[in-house]
Amino acid sequence: MDADHSGLRLTRRALVVGLGGLVVAPVWAETGWLDRYQLALAALKAPSTLQFTQQAVLSGWQEGDMQLSFRTSPGTWQARITELDRQRTLDRTQLDPVFYKSRLAIYNAYVTRPQRLAPEAVFPLMPTTEKIRTARAETWAGQPVNYLAFAGGVPIRELWLDPVRFLPRRIHWVDSGSYGTAEIFMDLGPVGEYWLPVASLVKIQLNFWVPQGFSARTFKGPLTIQTTYRDYQFRDQPPTSVPVEPEPLAQPTTRAALLAEESVPVPIVVRPTPSTPFNLQASTTTSSSVIADRIAAFNLSKPEVTDPYTHLNILLTLAWGDQRWQTYLFRFQTKTPLLPRESVSSENKSFPILGGN
Fold this sequence. Notes:
The protein is of the alpha+beta class. It has one domain (2-96, 125-297). The protein is built from three helices and 17 strands. It has an eleven-stranded antiparallel beta sheet with strand order 4-3-2-1-13-12-11-10-9-8-7. Strands 5-6-16-17 form a four-stranded mixed beta sheet, with helices on one face. A two-stranded antiparallel sheet has the order 14-15.
């Protein structure tokens, strides 16, 4: 009888140990996933010579659509941008990138060389914290992924990792600054030997104010930028189309899948649907009028007249290790100049560059 009880106790103990192993297994998986992700990022290289197309829709604070042909080569880049009825070309030599959170540097450039000012938003691919709130295997966009959510994660809040390559299928960033708050989702995938963006959704809640001594203008309201990246080409290779698959996100609050069609993306319209809140659709309607075509061609080639004090070029850069992947995000329209109204004098020693009244 005692032997029976002893055997029963051993069996129960083995069961408890086994269950304990099941409980702690995800913790080991979490650590392994981040370690493998870090190793995968260390081996990830940004292409030195690249060409691709961006298609973007802006809504909220400013409305419009943008098509962009982006070319990079070692040490430089060039973008051919079509907005509304205008075309323009930008290259690295025309702009001075300024870190987007360095408000003093931004204003210094704004009052001395506004036409060259380009605030640059830099976002890391590696989390700055390893405090994992949730880790689980799930299915996203019809493919298995390893999902990680970080406790108080800033700027990376969530990661969806490819379970084989351990590179990100989706990244969710959160950010805040003097401009307000932002939430960014970016989908990535394999393109040739590289891992590159496929689609992104940027949601900004503007709450921007300027320092004392400048026009006291406050920008308030939402700004949404939906972008697809496609037609990647490396050196002399033919374009590589990247399909964008619409798929509900793993979390109800993180839907960013975009639809992209292969037709000519003019014009772009946003059509919300009950199942997919963001839908990019391109019209294939073309004009049969020669005069209309000539007018359109003339409008595109007209010199653009813009105020550098109200039209600010914004850059977006992904960073990992010593690697950088830079592209053009959009042109922010302040709608009113932020010109100095009065200089800062010794009588006004309280210059709240970082906040205050």
